[in-house]
Specification:
- By secondary structure, the protein is of the alpha+beta class.
- The chain has one domain: Nitric Oxide Synthase, Chain A, domain 1 (Alpha-Beta Complex).
- The chain contains 14 helices and 17 strands.
- It has helices at residues 11-15, 21-39, 49-63, 70-83, 107-122, 171-179, 226-229, 264-271, 281-287, 300-319, 326-342, 351-354, 383-387, 401-424; strands at 2-3, 97-100, 130-133, 145-146, 156-158, 164-166, 196-199, 205-208, 217-219, 234-236, 240-241, 245-248, 251-253, 258-259, 262-263, 323-324, 378-380.
- Strands 1-8-7-4 form a 4-stranded antiparallel β-sheet, with helices on one face.
- Helix 2 runs antiparallel to helix 3 (49-63) and helix 8 crosses helix 10.
């Protein structure tokens, strides 16, 4: 473990959504009502809805925050997944495993819990979708949180000759880790795993090496062409996201690592191929016997992308690790959309994120109209990027005309006030 002894201004506070007392209470009421309506909580032994709403309102008025019950927390995290417009794999949202860890506040324990999560999610290779929820923001008290965007991140090393060895997306994260004392195990390589960065409320950063059981890596080999294996490509098995804020009923959980499993194009068509990441497409083409510099249309890119996708899917299958191809994932999303519509709900979707980057028109989601409802509960990166637009969604409820008009007016007022406060700051 390495410690950053220099306290800095708190970046977490700048990321969190700014809610008035009325907005927080509105989000809390909306969530509790939805929880009771969709789960039949009263029939399962929960206190009456009116009692629970009164308790929440009292806590908010007295202290500015309230605690979710374990059942509310579990269902709220599943709703956040169901509502997240940028996720294609929401068909199985009800099966998300929720680990409650709200009493865990020490950075050492947070790191240990996160590594245990990643190892448990992988298991024998049949990846389980999981989330571990650590302490929330309570009033003005900020908890420790994970600054790294994912449990496993590959370093990006700028070299003296201008090249970048490793993942270009993580050049800044690598610079920070080096400044805190981390060094790669040998000469800078393409797949040096960065330490997990946990940040204390006072701003101090602590580094934790990711243990082998939490970062299983798979060599990328092609089923028929040995040239791709010779490139030495590899990737990690579990995409465990640690850099997003979970928000449920007006309460923010800035430390809530969660995972699903990979879609092949995420690794092959994006991480390994994009210019601002590894930019290995030309190397893959040469390994396949194509000449990227040959005159004519650069269709070598299409073949390289296809064969790299084949290699990634083959490699995960060979290792017995869960992965899905983009065509199957698209069909699963269509089934998710059908189920949501059958339940009287409009699925929230961001077209630019849900359409796969490979063979897009051949995937049914390409032709599906979508609208991002920014519904709560949800996950967000920061209020500046995607948090400010989040709001309770009542589209699937029976509302009287005066209620709809009142909500529109109230939303316009809150949006105007946020813009005004933003200009002042």
């Amino acid at each position: 473990m390495t410690v950053d002894t220099h306290a800095a201004s708190d970046p977490l506070r700048r990321r969190l959504r700014r809610l008035s007392a009325a907005e927080r209470e509105d989000e809390a009421r909306s969530f509790v009502r939805r929880y009771y309506r969709e789960t039949g909580a009263e029939a399962q032994g929960a206190p009456p809805l009116a009692t629970r709403l009164a308790d929440v309102r009292r806590d908010l008025q007295r202290q500015g925050w309230y605690d979710h019950t374990p059942d509310e927390l579990a269902y709220g995290t599943r709703l956040a997944w169901r509502h997240h417009a940028r996720c294609l794999g929401r068909l199985f949202w009800e099966s998300l495993e929720v680990v409650g860890a709200r009493t865990v506040t020490r950075p050492d324990e947070i790191a240990a819990g996160t590594f245990a999560h990643a190892a448990a999610a992988l298991g024998d290779g049949r990846i389980r979708s999981m989330i571990t929820v650590f302490a929330p923001v309570r009033g003005g008290v900020l908890p420790a949180y994970i600054e790294s965007k994912q449990v496993v991140q590959y370093a990006g090393h700028p070299m003296p000759d201008g090249r970048v060895v490793g993942d270009r997306q993580h050049i800044e994260a690598t610079r920070i880790a080096r400044a805190l004392g981390w060094q790669p195990p040998g000469e800078p390589g393409d797949f040096d795993v960065l330490p997990l960065v946990v940040r204390e409320p006072g701003g101090r950063r602590l580094l934790y090496e990711v243990p082998p059981e939490a970062r299983r890596e798979l060599p990328i080999v092609h089923p028929t062409d040995p040239g791709i294996a010779a490139l030495g490509l590899r990737w990690y098995a579990v995409p465990c996201v640690t850099g997003m804020v979970l928000t449920i009923g007006g309460m923010d959980y800035p430390c809530a690592p969660f995972n699903g499993f990979y879609m092949g194009t995420e690794i092959a068509s994006r991480n390994l191929a994009e210019e601002h990441r590894y930019d290995w497409l030309a190397d893959v083409a040469r390994a396949l016997g194509d000449d990227p510099g040959a005159p004519g249309p650069p269709l070598w890119k299409d073949r390289a992308l296809l064969e790299l996708n084949r290699a990634v899917l083959h490699s995960f299958g060979l290792a017995g690790v869960t992965i899905i191809d983009h065509h199957t994932a698209s069909e699963q999303y269509m089934e998710f959309a059908r189920r949501e519509q059958a339940a009287g709900r409009v699925p929230s979707g961001d077209w630019s994120w849900l359409v796969p980057p490979q063979a897009s028109p051949a995937c049914p989601v390409f032709h599906l109209p979508m609208r991002d409802l920014h519904a709560l509960p949800n996950f967000y990166h920061s209020r500046a990027v995607d948090g400010a637009a989040l709001r309770p969604n009542h589209d699937d409820e029976l509302r009287r005309p005066w209620q709809l008009r009142w909500e529109r007016l109230r939303r316009r007022w809150w949006n105007w006030r946020r813009q005004r406060d933003g200009l002042r700051r």
